[in-house]
Amino acid sequence: LNRSDTASSGQVVTATSATAADFQAAGGKVLQYAYTEDLTSSSTTSTTLATSGTSVVLGSTLASSSAKVRIRVSFTYAVDTSRDCKFSLYDGSALLNPTGMEALAFANTNGGGGSAGKYMHFEFQDTVSSTTPKTYTLYMCSNTSAAIYIGRNDNDGLQVPTIMIAEELAV
């Protein structure tokens, strides 16, 4: 895809001469983006949301105080025993769950014993009201005190957790 080309809905494209600033997202033009890969595995036995240690910072300042921030989170997880677990995001110390929701993503690891590595992906859109930099961190917990692991597959190998964020101009 070159800068002057267009793509159809659902078409898979490869950019050859375009940059991130050339693309427009559903919410408007992408103003800036950040991406992180966490090369470590983390775990918790907490029954309340606890940090996974995976976080990403968007900009030294945001480009607009009326922008939207789209956050995409992908990771593998495992739980020591068959239990429910929850995943959420924090912006600094502020929990980003919608009103009335305990978490942004839930998983049930039904079956006997521990769960094999499972894949999780979720997205969230945050609304900003200032140009202060944003730090988004993935949090997790299990409904019991069973250990939950982020970035681990069923062979105890590392599966890299990622967070990608893009500041989009509100339209």
Structural class: mainly beta
Question: For the report, how would you describe the main beta sheet?
Answer: 7 strands, antiparallel
Helix content: under 10%
**Low-pLDDT residue intervals, each spanning 5 or more residues:** 9-18, 21-25
Q: What does the overall shape look like?
A: elongated
* Count of alpha and pi helical runs: 0
Taken in chain order, the helices and strands follow as EEEEEEEEEEEE
Q: DSSP strand (E) fraction?
A: over 45%
Mean of the pLDDT scores? Answer: 76
Radius of gyration: 18 Å
Number-wise, the strands total 12
Q: In angstroms, what separates the terminal alpha carbons?
A: 25 Å
Write a brief structural summary.
The protein is an all-beta fold. The protein has strands at 24-25, 28-37, 42-44, 50-58, 68-79, 84-91, 94-95, 105-108, 118-127, 134-142, 148-150, 162-168. The strands form 2 sheets. Strands 1, 2, 3, 5, 9, 11 and 12 form a 7-stranded antiparallel sheet that branches. Strands 4, 6, 7, 8 and 10 form a 5-stranded antiparallel sheet that branches.
What does this structure look like?
Strands 1, 2, 3, 5, 9, 11 and 12 form a seven-stranded antiparallel sheet that branches. This protein has 171 residues and is mainly β. The protein has no helices and twelve strands. Strand 6 and strand 7 form a beta hairpin. The two termini are 25 Å apart.
